[in-house]
Amino acid sequence: MNHVHEGLIAQKRNWSRLANRVLKSGLPQELPPRPPSRILLLGEGRGLCSAKLLALSLRREMMRKGGRQIPPVLACASVQMGFEVFPDKYDWVFALSHDDSTEVTLRAFEKCDKAGAFTVWVTADEDQKPEFGRLQVVVGEPGDKPGKTLQRGVDIISPICAVSTLLLGSQAVEIWSALSSSKNPPLEGLQSRIQAPPTVVLGEWEGEWIAREIALELNEVAGVRVPAYSSEEYYHGPHFVSSHLEPRLASKSESGTESIDSIWYVSVPGDVRESQFSPIYRVKALENQLFSWVPALVELQWLTFALALHLRKSQ
Question: Which of 166, 271, 279, 280 has its CA 20 to 30 A from that of 207?
Fold first, then answer.
């Protein structure tokens, strides 16, 4: 488990270094002078989680600025490109890749490049360079390789850091430097709070994609398979089944809501379903600031590690 602990500690250091490295690399000057008609973000697995979180963050930033500063942003699975989403020459496309199992993302990236879009390959592996594309951005530290000490969380957050720095420049550098300097959650305190794994992880918008990433980490780090849902999807699916179709399985909580699940909940303002559940652990994911969901993701990463240590000790 030492490599997981080392990765969690190291990941924040990478954000500030990466943002400054991207800003000073000359890559921002390589962007076309003409603003894009759309920004397309694509990936699979963790790459898709990164794309969704970045797209939601940029959309919120666009709304705060009246929709004039950032063009429309769309995040999609690589398999959608050329089937449900069609690139054109006025798009900027960022493909987010974390390892060498990215054939579908490579195919999607090639379609975008052939359509004349401005294409950027964002990768954790400096050796993974496609034959096509305008720019390559490496998000790991020099010499890092995925699957070694390359940190969980860097896998999902560092591409967001790199692309946002390309698009927003010094504004992004300031944000990532501040996030890098923030303290990690206390591991001992988390270990005392969590004794058993959740049965489901929930959230809406940014919260949903944090939940999906944490579900992956629960499987990889703690050896626990846990589904993740958007809160609305869960309310109309598993919750409805347990509360209405299987009433004998449902148990009343103190708040009067019904659930048979032990829930980790990623709270985002505006989530109307949040009050319907009584989670065993809740973390607030968003304030009115760009990338302010990052501490919530980091807290849940540390909580997952704390759970893994507890489960390992109890075996």
Answer: 166
Cβ pair 109, 42 in contact under 8 A:
yes
User: With contact defined as beta carbons under 8 Å apart, do 62 and 116 qualify?
Assistant: no
In this structure, what token pair is assigned to residue 118? Answer: 């401005």
Ordered mean pLDDT values, 10 residues apiece, the chain (315 residues): 87 93 96 96 95 95 76 96 96 87 89 97 84 91 54 77 96 96 94 93 97 96 96 90 60 50 95 93 88 96 96 84
pTM of the model: 0.91
Q: Which residues contact 169 (CB under 8 A, 6 or more apart)?
A: 23, 28
Helix, strand, coil share (%) of the chain residues, nearest 5: 50, 15, 35
Query: Of the candidates 247, 273, 275, which has an alpha carbon nearest to the alpha carbon of residue 260?
Result: 247
